[in-house]
Amino acid sequence: MPTPSTAARARRAALAVALPLLLVAGCSDNPEPSAATTPSASPSPTATASDSPAAPELPAAARENTPEGAEAFVRHWVEVLNSTRSGVGGQAIRRHSADGCIQCRAISETADEIRAGSLVVDGGDWHVATSTINPYDPPEGDLIVVTRMEINQGSVTRDGQSPSPTQSSTKSISFVLDWQDRWIVLEIRTPS
Protein backbone atom coordinates (compact mmCIF):
# COMPACT_ATOMS: atom_id res chain seq x y z
CA MET A 1 0.00 0.00 0.00
CA PRO A 2 1.46 3.40 -0.91
CA THR A 3 2.44 5.79 1.82
CA PRO A 4 0.24 8.87 2.18
CA SER A 5 2.82 11.06 0.46
CA THR A 6 3.14 8.56 -2.39
CA ALA A 7 -0.64 8.27 -2.64
CA ALA A 8 -0.99 12.07 -2.63
CA ARG A 9 1.61 12.39 -5.38
CA ALA A 10 -0.09 9.63 -7.38
CA ARG A 11 -3.49 11.35 -6.99
CA ARG A 12 -2.06 14.69 -8.16
CA ALA A 13 -0.36 12.99 -11.10
CA ALA A 14 -3.51 11.07 -11.95
CA LEU A 15 -5.64 14.18 -11.77
CA ALA A 16 -3.21 15.80 -14.15
CA VAL A 17 -3.60 12.85 -16.49
CA ALA A 18 -7.31 12.55 -15.85
CA LEU A 19 -8.54 15.86 -17.05
CA PRO A 20 -6.79 17.69 -19.79
CA LEU A 21 -7.54 20.96 -18.11
CA LEU A 22 -5.66 19.93 -15.03
CA LEU A 23 -2.70 18.72 -17.10
CA VAL A 24 -0.66 21.89 -17.25
CA ALA A 25 2.99 22.57 -16.77
CA GLY A 26 3.80 23.35 -13.18
CA CYS A 27 0.87 21.69 -11.43
CA SER A 28 1.25 22.57 -7.79
CA ASP A 29 0.81 20.37 -4.77
CA ASN A 30 -2.59 22.00 -4.39
CA PRO A 31 -4.43 21.37 -7.65
CA GLU A 32 -7.47 23.17 -6.23
CA PRO A 33 -8.65 25.27 -9.17
CA SER A 34 -10.77 28.33 -8.72
CA ALA A 35 -14.32 27.82 -9.91
CA ALA A 36 -17.53 29.60 -10.76
CA THR A 37 -20.85 27.99 -10.22
CA THR A 38 -22.58 26.96 -13.35
CA PRO A 39 -26.34 26.86 -13.12
CA SER A 40 -27.64 23.47 -14.06
CA ALA A 41 -31.12 22.30 -14.76
CA SER A 42 -32.68 20.11 -12.13
CA PRO A 43 -33.18 16.58 -13.38
CA SER A 44 -36.73 15.72 -14.21
CA PRO A 45 -38.32 13.41 -11.66
CA THR A 46 -39.31 11.16 -14.56
CA ALA A 47 -35.81 11.03 -16.07
CA THR A 48 -34.75 7.57 -17.14
CA ALA A 49 -31.34 5.96 -17.52
CA SER A 50 -31.60 6.55 -21.26
CA ASP A 51 -31.79 10.32 -20.56
CA SER A 52 -28.38 10.18 -18.85
CA PRO A 53 -25.18 10.79 -20.81
CA ALA A 54 -23.45 7.59 -21.86
CA ALA A 55 -19.80 6.75 -22.47
CA PRO A 56 -18.83 5.73 -26.01
CA GLU A 57 -19.21 2.05 -26.89
CA LEU A 58 -16.05 -0.04 -27.17
CA PRO A 59 -15.36 -0.50 -30.91
CA ALA A 60 -14.76 -3.97 -32.35
CA ALA A 61 -11.14 -3.12 -33.20
CA ALA A 62 -10.43 -2.42 -29.50
CA ARG A 63 -11.65 -5.92 -28.57
CA GLU A 64 -8.80 -7.65 -30.41
CA ASN A 65 -5.76 -9.09 -28.62
CA THR A 66 -3.36 -7.53 -31.13
CA PRO A 67 -1.07 -4.49 -31.11
CA GLU A 68 -3.62 -2.72 -33.31
CA GLY A 69 -6.35 -3.68 -30.85
CA ALA A 70 -4.29 -2.19 -28.01
CA GLU A 71 -3.91 1.08 -29.92
CA ALA A 72 -7.64 1.15 -30.72
CA PHE A 73 -8.35 0.50 -27.04
CA VAL A 74 -6.21 3.48 -25.93
CA ARG A 75 -7.97 5.73 -28.45
CA HIS A 76 -11.30 4.51 -27.04
CA TRP A 77 -10.12 5.10 -23.46
CA VAL A 78 -9.28 8.71 -24.42
CA GLU A 79 -12.78 9.09 -25.94
CA VAL A 80 -14.24 7.81 -22.66
CA LEU A 81 -12.08 10.32 -20.76
CA ASN A 82 -13.35 13.15 -22.99
CA SER A 83 -16.94 12.00 -22.40
CA THR A 84 -16.61 12.38 -18.63
CA ARG A 85 -17.10 16.15 -19.00
CA SER A 86 -20.70 15.48 -20.03
CA GLY A 87 -21.42 13.85 -16.66
CA VAL A 88 -21.14 10.13 -17.45
CA GLY A 89 -19.22 9.58 -14.21
CA GLY A 90 -16.25 7.34 -13.62
CA GLN A 91 -17.82 3.92 -14.12
CA ALA A 92 -16.61 3.56 -17.73
CA ILE A 93 -13.05 4.48 -16.69
CA ARG A 94 -13.23 1.88 -13.88
CA ARG A 95 -14.58 -0.75 -16.31
CA HIS A 96 -11.52 -0.31 -18.55
CA SER A 97 -8.92 -0.13 -15.74
CA ALA A 98 -7.27 -2.50 -13.28
CA ASP A 99 -8.26 -2.14 -9.63
CA GLY A 100 -4.63 -1.34 -8.78
CA CYS A 101 -4.30 1.53 -11.26
CA ILE A 102 -3.93 4.51 -8.92
CA GLN A 103 -4.07 7.04 -11.74
CA CYS A 104 -7.22 5.44 -13.16
CA ARG A 105 -8.89 5.48 -9.76
CA ALA A 106 -8.17 9.20 -9.35
CA ILE A 107 -9.46 9.85 -12.88
CA SER A 108 -12.69 7.98 -12.17
CA GLU A 109 -13.15 9.83 -8.86
CA THR A 110 -12.68 13.14 -10.67
CA ALA A 111 -15.25 12.04 -13.28
CA ASP A 112 -17.64 11.27 -10.40
CA GLU A 113 -17.06 14.82 -9.08
CA ILE A 114 -18.05 16.17 -12.50
CA ARG A 115 -21.18 14.02 -12.48
CA ALA A 116 -22.05 15.27 -8.98
CA GLY A 117 -21.65 18.87 -10.17
CA SER A 118 -18.83 19.88 -7.81
CA LEU A 119 -16.37 20.19 -10.72
CA VAL A 120 -17.08 21.64 -14.18
CA VAL A 121 -14.68 21.22 -17.07
CA ASP A 122 -15.16 23.33 -20.20
CA GLY A 123 -13.10 22.39 -23.25
CA GLY A 124 -9.80 20.61 -22.91
CA ASP A 125 -10.40 17.64 -25.21
CA TRP A 126 -7.59 15.15 -25.59
CA HIS A 127 -6.59 13.92 -29.04
CA VAL A 128 -4.18 11.06 -29.70
CA ALA A 129 -1.84 12.57 -32.30
CA THR A 130 0.40 9.50 -32.57
CA SER A 131 0.75 6.15 -30.85
CA THR A 132 3.29 3.35 -30.89
CA ILE A 133 3.42 -0.05 -29.23
CA ASN A 134 6.33 -1.14 -27.04
CA PRO A 135 6.36 -4.65 -25.55
CA TYR A 136 6.73 -4.27 -21.80
CA ASP A 137 6.69 -7.73 -20.32
CA PRO A 138 6.17 -10.22 -23.16
CA PRO A 139 5.87 -13.30 -20.89
CA GLU A 140 3.03 -11.57 -19.06
CA GLY A 141 1.50 -10.13 -22.22
CA ASP A 142 1.65 -6.51 -21.05
CA LEU A 143 2.14 -3.78 -23.64
CA ILE A 144 2.90 -0.09 -23.43
CA VAL A 145 1.10 2.23 -25.83
CA VAL A 146 3.11 5.44 -26.00
CA THR A 147 1.06 8.38 -27.21
CA ARG A 148 1.68 11.98 -28.10
CA MET A 149 -1.42 13.66 -26.77
CA GLU A 150 -2.65 17.06 -27.91
CA ILE A 151 -4.67 18.77 -25.22
CA ASN A 152 -6.87 21.75 -26.04
CA GLN A 153 -7.25 24.89 -23.94
CA GLY A 154 -10.15 25.05 -21.53
CA SER A 155 -11.13 25.92 -17.98
CA VAL A 156 -11.98 24.21 -14.70
CA THR A 157 -14.46 25.45 -12.12
CA ARG A 158 -14.95 24.01 -8.66
CA ASP A 159 -17.61 24.63 -6.03
CA GLY A 160 -18.60 28.22 -6.78
CA GLN A 161 -15.13 29.67 -7.34
CA SER A 162 -13.86 31.59 -10.37
CA PRO A 163 -12.89 29.61 -13.51
CA SER A 164 -9.27 28.50 -13.72
CA PRO A 165 -8.01 28.51 -17.34
CA THR A 166 -5.54 25.99 -18.68
CA GLN A 167 -3.27 26.17 -21.73
CA SER A 168 -3.13 23.94 -24.77
CA SER A 169 -0.26 21.49 -24.63
CA THR A 170 1.25 18.38 -26.12
CA LYS A 171 2.25 15.61 -23.69
CA SER A 172 3.76 12.16 -23.98
CA ILE A 173 1.55 9.74 -22.06
CA SER A 174 2.15 5.99 -21.82
CA PHE A 175 -0.60 3.49 -21.10
CA VAL A 176 0.54 0.13 -19.67
CA LEU A 177 -2.04 -2.42 -20.81
CA ASP A 178 -2.78 -6.04 -20.05
CA TRP A 179 -5.00 -8.48 -21.90
CA GLN A 180 -7.42 -10.26 -19.54
CA ASP A 181 -10.02 -11.44 -22.08
CA ARG A 182 -10.11 -7.70 -22.85
CA TRP A 183 -7.65 -4.82 -22.63
CA ILE A 184 -7.35 -3.01 -19.32
CA VAL A 185 -5.14 -0.13 -18.21
CA LEU A 186 -2.66 -1.20 -15.52
CA GLU A 187 -0.91 2.16 -15.22
CA ILE A 188 -0.70 5.57 -16.85
CA ARG A 189 2.73 7.15 -17.02
CA THR A 190 3.63 10.76 -17.70
CA PRO A 191 7.13 12.21 -17.85
CA SER A 192 8.18 13.60 -14.50
UniProtKB/TrEMBL annotation:
<keyword id="KW-0732">Signal</keyword>
<feature type="domain" description="DUF6318">
    <location>
        <begin position="54"/>
        <end position="183"/>
    </location>
</feature>
<feature type="region of interest" description="Disordered">
    <location>
        <begin position="28"/>
        <end position="66"/>
    </location>
</feature>
<dbReference type="Pfam" id="PF19843">
    <property type="entry name" value="DUF6318"/>
</dbReference>
<feature type="signal peptide">
    <location>
        <begin position="1"/>
        <end position="30"/>
    </location>
</feature>
<feature type="compositionally biased region" description="Low complexity">
    <location>
        <begin position="33"/>
        <end position="62"/>
    </location>
</feature>
<protein>
    <recommendedName>
        <fullName>DUF6318 domain-containing protein</fullName>
    </recommendedName>
</protein>
<dbReference type="InterPro" id="IPR046281">
    <property type="entry name" value="DUF6318"/>
</dbReference>
